[in-house]
Amino acid sequence: MLNSNVFDYVNVLSKAADASWQRNEILSNNYANVNTPGYKRQDIDFGTQLRQAMGNSRYETVDAKVARVSRLNLRPRVYTDSASFSYRLDGNNVDPDTEGVELTSNQIMYNGLRDCINQEFANLKMVMK
C-alpha cells in the first residue's frame, strides 16, 4: 500500500473550516439571544490549539508540521466569554454590534478556507493530468 501525505493540507484546512462553521453557529446563537436575560456570550477557540499542534520548532518544515497536525484529532473548544461581565442590568453580555462584526469576520475566514481547500484539489487535479 502506498503511504502518501497528499491530503495533509486538505485535512488540516478541513478541520479549520469545520471549526469556523461551528463558530458561525455559536455566534448566530449569541445574536439570537441578544435580548435573553442572563444569557452569556459563547465563542470557540481553535486557533490556539492549531498553533500549539503546529509547534514552534524553527528546524521543522511546514510540511512536517502539517503532517503531524493532520494525524491529530483536534477539537475546537467552546467557552463562555466574560461570564462575570454584563452590558446590561439583566445580566446579558451580548453586544449586537460586536456579534455582527464577528459573524462577518468569521464568514470571510470560512470562505478563505473553502477557497484554499478548492485550490488544493485543483493542484492535485493538475498533477494527475
In short:
This protein is mainly alpha-helical. The chain is built from four helices and two strands.
Outline: elongated
| Termini gap | 22 Å
What share of the residues does DSSP label as strand, in percent? Answer: 5-15%
How many structural domains are formed by the residues?
Answer: 1
SSE string, helices as H and strands as E: HEHHEH
E-strand count = 2
The gyration radius over C-alpha positions equals 18 Å
Mean pLDDT: 86
Structural class of the helices, strands and pairings?
mainly alpha
Low-confidence stretches: none
- Count of separate DSSP helical elements: 4
| Sheet with the most strands, sense and barrel status | 2 strands, antiparallel
Proportion of helical residues: 55-70%
Sheet with most strands: strand arrangement:
1-2
3D architecture notes:
By secondary structure, this protein is mainly alpha-helical. It has one domain. The chain contains 4 helices and 2 strands. It has helices spanning 8-32, 47-54, 62-71, 96-128; strands spanning 42-45, 77-80. A two-stranded antiparallel sheet has the order 1-2. The longest helix is centred in the last third of the chain and has 33 residues, at 96-128. It starts with 7 loop residues before the first helix and ends with a helix. The model has no long low-confidence stretch (mean pLDDT 86).
Which helices and strands occur, and which strands form pairs?
Blueprint lengths: L7 H25 L9 E4 L1 H8 L7 H10 L5 E4 L15 H33 L1
Antiparallel strand pairs: 1-2
Helix pairs in contact: 1-3, 1-4
